[in-house]
Amino acid sequence: MQLAAQDIMRQLKQIVVKEYGVPEDKVTFADGKIRLPETQLDYAEVMFKSFGMQGGTLVGEGQVKTSVKNEFGEKSTSAFWFFAAGAAEVEVDVDTGKFKLIKYATAVDVGKALNPLGCRQQLAGAAITGIGQAMFEEIAYDNGQLINPNLVDYVLPSFGDMPPVIDPICVEVPDRNGPFGAKGIGESALIPVAPAIANAVFDAVGVRIRDLPIKAEKIFLALEETKAKS
Q1: Using CA atoms, how far apart are residues 189 and 105, in angstroms rounded to an integer?
Q2: pLDDT(70) > 70
Q3: What is the arithmetic mean of pLDDT over 181-203?
Q4: Which alpha helices (DSSP H) does 100-215 contain, by range?
Q5: What is the C-alpha separation between 5 and 229, in angstroms, rounded?
Q6: 84-220 CATH pick, 3.30.365.10, 3.40.50.720, 3.30.70.790, 3.40.50.620
Q7: Is 137 among the catalytic positions?
Q8: d(CA 21, CA 18)
Q9: How far, rounded to the nearest angstrom, does the alpha carbon of residue 54 sit from its chain's CA centroid?
Q10: Does residue 49 have a pLDDT over 80?
């Protein structure tokens, strides 16, 4: 993306040189403007000057080839790896199996957080998606027929179903292959959610729920089975 943006800047600079007769080394970019020795231009103004009032499109291109070896000199199968952890706090009613997620925290190796607020929001969003998978979402079949093929019957969590506290933590370990040390973090915070909630339930009442979603009836039946064996 960085190289593609730089390519667009190069194209814009060429347009300014052509349309305004300014030497290339006198064209700079700062504060959202194109700077010339005696004036400054808006991007839209330059685009209209080049393409007319209907405007046009500039397409930037960028390509990066990551290192084929890791820091130990071994062949690397990926540009980077995800590292993430999750911790959940739950309350469980031992009589009914009903449980509530009180707090969820996630810590993710983000490489270098170029936009710390955006990173935390991304981690929180991934955690919310994971909570939906862990506690609500289920594709249900009856005799091979899908019985919840719509958003009325396929249960998605609402904001009211979210825990009062979701604490996203960015752990910064700059990655040599990423732009400015950044890593992709789109999916990493999603992965530990279900195990964290399942482990929290086990820690609270001593029963393992090994299939998703984690529901009150599953906890209740597991508790009853444990009672029957004792």
Answers
A1: 10
A2: no
A3: 94
A4: 116-135, 193-205
A5: 65
A6: 3.30.365.10
A7: no
A8: 6
A9: 36
A10: yes
Residue 173: is its pLDDT beyond 70?
yes
For the chain, give every domain's residue range. 2-51, 84-220
Please, what sign has the CA dihedral across residues 114, 115, 117, 123? Answer: negative
With pLDDT > 90 as the criterion, what percentage of the chain qualifies? 70
Q: Which helix (H) or strand (E) holds 89?
A: strand 84-92
pLDDT reported for residue 67: 66
Residues near 159 by Cβ (< 8 Å), separated by ≥ 6?
none
- Which of 19, 24, 45, 187 is an active site residue? 187
Give the residue among 57, 59, 67, 106 at the shortest CA–CA distance from 83: 106
Q: Tell me the residue length of the chain.
A: 230
Give the tokens for residue 90.
Answer: 């739950």
